[in-house]
């Protein structure tokens, strides 16, 4: 067989695999839209679905113009990339269009996470600003640190931090912690929704209007996560030396298994944990528990044993439950629990990887299975403090970077009067006050206006 022809076939199959993974990750936008819509009240369903569309379309332009360049641009700068703006010089020897599309699907997912934290009380204009800024600058810089060849935290760098680099294979920190911390600052600066806490500071339930959409969104996200985590190998036809009939295809399968086990374990623990706390079986809580397990395993999905994924999911469930209790205590209001779920479980995922990463799997994920290389592994597995220290540095660096960028942005939008809607608009609902009608013909609350004209008359009378 002609070697050049064989190489061409291999490249083609790898490209198909990456493109298919990109399509799976993009399906997660539909999952986010369904999950968000079902988790808010009916009078805000149209608004939250529109914000998910905005995250995709605005994120596409910002990531095309700036984001991909900042994340993967060829540069000796370990902080930020400086080439490939507007995809100039793509395809190159390092990247092609398939890789851009896959990374774009990740970028727009970050904005979707943040949107959930500030749902039901945010002006639509604000979404345009923060979505462009988050996908065009804030997220790409973190992606450059971890996923480029020369990022200062990258496990692929020629100068490894602590001799290890931080392992964040599919983005517990790069994607989920970034989105969760950004959403946290947005929710803190805006404050809780009208009526979320009574005059004595006690929480008032504001349950989502449609459990069916929440469950549908959860399964769509589960499906998309099989592109999110296994797809992060980028190439599937990579054989491992000194191993018969094993290669990236083996690791891809194992990564899908660890993803499934972590999410499933977190879901069942949340089911029984919430049953003990609230006295009934709660479908929406279980769905968030499943997603929390997925978020946590995303960092170490490719480098841990299946049994360790069960440990990851078990702890992720209690992280989520505990943070939700603290959120109510401190009167923090996040309709989607996005900061707790993506931020809290994402942080746990980074720590978990530093504890349970297996050296053999680290070599497979980052060195194509070459055995003559020595890499630090998880602290609990005897790998020393190198990897664990790098994971902690990543966690702290992401929190600081996102806080220093997104916090001031939300504060500025608030000062300019374009972040939070008025109390009257919030009570009426964003669908009628900002979009001229409800998502459903029969969804309006009895006390609410039925048409945009009625809403305007109510405003005039008040």
TrEMBL record:
Membrane protein topology class: Multi-pass membrane protein
Localization (cell): Cell membrane; Membrane
Classification via Gene3D superfamilies: Ammonium transporter AmtB like domains
InterPro entries assigned: Ammonium/urea_transptr, Ammonium_transpt, Ammonium_transpt_CS, NH4_transpt_AmtB-like_dom
A single Gene Ontology CC term: plasma membrane
Any one Gene Ontology molecular-function term assigned to this protein's record: ammonium channel activity
Ranges that cross the membrane: 15-36, 48-72, 101-119, 126-147, 167-189, 210-228, 307-327, 339-357, 385-413
Cross-referenced Pfam families: Ammonium_transp
One annotated GO biological process: ammonium homeostasis
Coiled-coil annotated spans: none
Chain ranges of the Ammonium transporter AmtB-like domain: 18-440
Entry keywords, A to Z: Ammonia transport, Membrane, Transmembrane, Transmembrane helix, Transport
Tree of life domain: Eukaryota
Family: Belongs to the ammonia transporter channel (TC 1.A.11.2) family.
Record's protein name: Ammonium transporter
